[in-house]
Amino acid sequence: MNDDPLVLFMPSGKRGHFPRGTPLLDAARKLGVYVESVCGGRATCGRCQIEVQEGHFAKHKISSSPDHISPPGAKETRYAEKRTLPPGRRLSCSATIEGDLVVDVPQDAVINAQVVRKDADTRVIERHPAVHLCYVEVEEPDMHKPLGDLDRLKAALQRDWSFGPIEVDAHLLPQVQPTLREGKWAVTAALFQDGDNDIARLAALWPGLKNEAYGLACDIGSTTIAMHLVSLLSGRVVASAGASNPQIRFGEDLMSRVSYVMMNPDGREAMTRAVRQEISKLVQKVAEDGGIARSDILDAVFVANPIMHHLFLGIDPTELGGAPFALAVSEAVLLKAEDLDLKLNPGTRTYLLPCIAGHVGADAAAVTLSEGPHRQDEMMLIVDVGTNAEIVLGNRNRVVAASSPTGPAFEGAEISSGQRAAPGAIERVRIDRETLAPRFRVIGSELWSDEAGFLDSLGQTGVTGICGSGIIEVIAEMYLSGIISEDGVVNGALADKSSRIVAEGRTFSYALCETEPRITITQNDVRGIQLAKAALYAGIKLLMEKQGVETVDMIRFAGAFGSFIDPQYAMVLGLIPDCDLSRVSAVGNAAGTGARMALLSRDHRREIEQTVRRIEKIETALEPRFQEHFVNAMALPNKVEPFPKLAELVQLPPRTMAGIPGEESNPSRPRRRSREERAARRRRV
Amino acid sequence: MNDDPLVLFMPSGKRGHFPRGTPLLDAARKLGVYVESVCGGRATCGRCQIEVQEGHFAKHKISSSPDHISPPGAKETRYAEKRTLPPGRRLSCSATIEGDLVVDVPQDAVINAQVVRKDADTRVIERHPAVHLCYVEVEEPDMHKPLGDLDRLKAALQRDWSFGPIEVDAHLLPQVQPTLREGKWAVTAALFQDGDNDIARLAALWPGLKNEAYGLACDIGSTTIAMHLVSLLSGRVVASAGASNPQIRFGEDLMSRVSYVMMNPDGREAMTRAVRQEISKLVQKVAEDGGIARSDILDAVFVANPIMHHLFLGIDPTELGGAPFALAVSEAVLLKAEDLDLKLNPGTRTYLLPCIAGHVGADAAAVTLSEGPHRQDEMMLIVDVGTNAEIVLGNRNRVVAASSPTGPAFEGAEISSGQRAAPGAIERVRIDRETLAPRFRVIGSELWSDEAGFLDSLGQTGVTGICGSGIIEVIAEMYLSGIISEDGVVNGALADKSSRIVAEGRTFSYALCETEPRITITQNDVRGIQLAKAALYAGIKLLMEKQGVETVDMIRFAGAFGSFIDPQYAMVLGLIPDCDLSRVSAVGNAAGTGARMALLSRDHRREIEQTVRRIEKIETALEPRFQEHFVNAMALPNKVEPFPKLAELVQLPPRTMAGIPGEESNPSRPRRRSREERAARRRRV
């Protein structure tokens, strides 16, 4: 029986007994609860705020009360008066334990009434950043102990902050003496600690107390670059910005960029320069929006697909263009920002998450970190649809991953009226089961096409085309209303029943929008989507076989595409396996969230590094069963999968077991083989 | 009793029992005997050569024979044929232990008949360099195990060379894939391992087998920069070069350079640039002389006094110009060469030895490492005479160090006819005890001035002045022949006896050379040497007091000055304490030797770092007894020290115990105080 007071820290749930008089900050440190502190217990930085919860917590057998903590001392009172401490908040460096306590560590400590922008993604990320601000008071020089100024600074950091050996960045050597003198022997040091060893690196130095430091979390997509500026001390997103990837001018998709490198002697250099310059502009923008100096940015995390990752690092991506798709580097990469031509603080490091495989990059690793299949028991499927779809499936026992060459059909490319998701694009479609007449919604308007004022609501844009989510819905609705068979053939016999079914050569189309510009869904469009979704589903099915499961417990759609498609329609098309619809969700820019997690906690860096080492990568092209799964998945929703949960919600057309006559319309062997060859060609460039 | 054969490695003396069939290289590794190997036991690099000693070694109870080693196998025979193995040499990676052996590890393995220049300093330095060349064969990429090329390279290095975690230099990321392919998956990696942690850093990479790597050892003096190019694999000096320190144009001595920085806004930058550029030229020169590429230079060690050290690092040395003489950094500094604007291999590191105190720099640390007072039991005094004299005194129990402001008199400055040691300078002097006539020798001639052909032997130069060693000798001879008293007064009464004694105002001079240019030793010259030697001796005496010793066992003179002065005359003057003359020696450029030791062995780096942390630094200006020792040391050889060993060799004039009359000639309090003030002013600038 321990007579010392019991202290429970929330939300971590860590607990322990401590003698009366122990500062709460010390108790937190001993338990491994991360509480920020810059001033090292001098009650001047205000970073170590906590709240005492009042009441009897029967579950924990703790009666917690504000009386069980020491009253504010002179220093804390001075801080509260000068800097304002929110009601209920205490400084854990000054408040001591005087009885049993339940202590809440707020994740949003607002310091100096700083205004922080509210981010759409309000996920709270546990913090344990690689960069620490450490305020120290350094001994003055003494002729009797002729230790250098830097050496006394290191000694002070080791004494007050329990660091082991400290390495020093070269650029600081000339700054140590003037900074110490400017700060009258009191300075704040930024210590960087990460990677395979416990060596701390002195990365930046300011006179006096420096109470804020920032980091970047950046997702370099083939199309878009997205960047968040994040406070390393509070974890809050301070500013966000996005821009098109300027490499688009060298090639629309990944493989055309690899081709550009192979064809042009300085192609790699030009693309590396382009992406770094654009990132530099985004840094400028978020720094301006956040009202901070670039030199206050002390850490940066980047995620990207393998080709973007290599080009950003200045690595020739040619090897990724053909089998065996060899990555130059797969493990996490830690560099100085200046090695990537980024002008931040000279001591700033950058961290790139590991790549999983030649087609499954650091972005997929970031999505995995964000969604955490490896952190839970249920079988989670993560699908990130782009030109290549990245697929991750697993739970805490085992995680497998693959990439499927879906092609750009889901993004509206290679579709006759397809376009990117932008104002004017049809995004929602319903078809009357009897009349076969459609109604639809268009990006930029809240109205359906059969509602009054629809055309006016579109403004000058009008209807311009159909985007990925619209294609998914229209083809699913065409299937549900009998316009296409389960094998994807547009039923020409219906031309008699509806003017929407129109003959085009030897096949038939469905006219979705009869006014100009006419938007029709052709037999080729249907075929394009069938091929894309069959590739995706075949990949998923391979992973399910590897895991030995018939069903998945939950599905996460990552990326912009996933945010707009209706999971039910995705399931009708057989894009994804049968699943309880309430367990299917879109998770938005999960890659960006994963990047923020790695930025804010080096524990998350170790977590994803270890997870990626464990992930089993399936190369779909090498799997003998891929072909069979692909053929089955050409059917809607699938030739062999029962989709029982979907059937409870949706009236699916009855299945025909026989093949469908007609040469073009039959996804026959030669046709399929040619499809795979095209996919393989795309990879090889 | 161990039945396994006993193997003794020389010169290390390490020994152990090993099962028959053990490769000798493995045995050496297990015992911690450093044997170089690049190819990792493939018998292709030839770096692991050893020799078996034949005979019965009674002391070790070993009968060693070439029969106790396996005969050359196919690989070794192929190497011997293709690359020539000197007679008696074997490759220790291939030769296995078959009986008791005494094995010699040669320190000079000459590979591929490479011609190495013989260096004056033939000291053999134990090798354990910070940079290792490691040949590996890397697995080819495999779609089923999508590890990056770099990651497979790291795995191969860890597997074959037992490395732990490996960090990778940023510049190598784009090179890994093409280098692996160029080398057909066989590459040689340079791994750098040093400092506080065991992390290895991949610093350079070549296709195939790379069998040579070089390092620089450089001593940056105020006047001269000296550089050696050293093979990191054989330890041999391949080329050497020297140049004037171009900072001389900003100020002749150290304090005038500090003044220049204080007076000129870009003074620090200009001097940093000047010294780095000169070093870069020297690199070019030694690389050309050695017939190697700059990119083959993979490590570099620099030593310098504190002000040169700071300026080289780009640190403002102003703080070193005044009390408390605060070093910006005192511990050893490890940087990338490119941080110092040195164009070597992009992965090359530089190491600067630690500084001992504000006036006792990394050069003094290098001298200490070279001479090793801390490695032995006897009390060793090391004196490095320059504008400041650095003094180190100690043994394995305790080492103390100080700097004495001797001023430039010993270098010929502030002496009426003084000059640097150069052709034309008088360097040796003898005075006839009866006639008071001198004879002397001049740099550039082997003849004494009273020998036939002397003038002709001087050529056009003639006699131009007197250098430091000449001044020491002439003043010692003046004392021994009674021209000056023990208090340094030129005896004017002798003017009657010899025309060499000449009145100049109220004092007298000694005419050493009566032809033009007339070279005379004035009373002021004598006084200047007295002041300098008194400062030096007082510093030595303080250190002896700290150590609690009355005598020292051995004396080492470091630096160019020490190489030219005759220890006996130095003792007559009382520059150094009484000591058995056979134990007094000049050690030449010991700072350069120390730099080479640190270059060739990281064990030596740790050794000097630990030693410098232990060295007690005495600030002479703060010691109350300095004054008293200084006054006593103004006398020749000393007012209170007996110098018994010297007296056995030299007929010293009888001592007078009374003070000497005459105001100017008496080193009285005001005079002495003014001297110390000047010394203090010099330090404060």
Automatic annotation (TrEMBL), chains A, B:
Cross-referenced InterPro entries? 2Fe-2S_ferredoxin-like_sf, 2Fe-2S_ferredoxin-type, Beta-grasp_dom_sf, Corrinoid_activation_enz, Raco-like_middle, Raco-like_middle_sf, RACo_C, RACo_linker
Q: Which Gene3D superfamilies match?
A: 3.10.20.30, 3.10.20.880, Domain of unknown function (DUF4445)
The source's superkingdom equals Bacteria
CDD domains in the record, alphabetically? fer2
Domain annotation 2Fe-2S ferredoxin-type: ranges: 5-109
Start and end residues of each stretch annotated as Disordered:
654-685
Protein name as it appears in the record: ASKHA domain-containing protein
Organism this protein belongs to: Nitratireductor kimnyeongensis
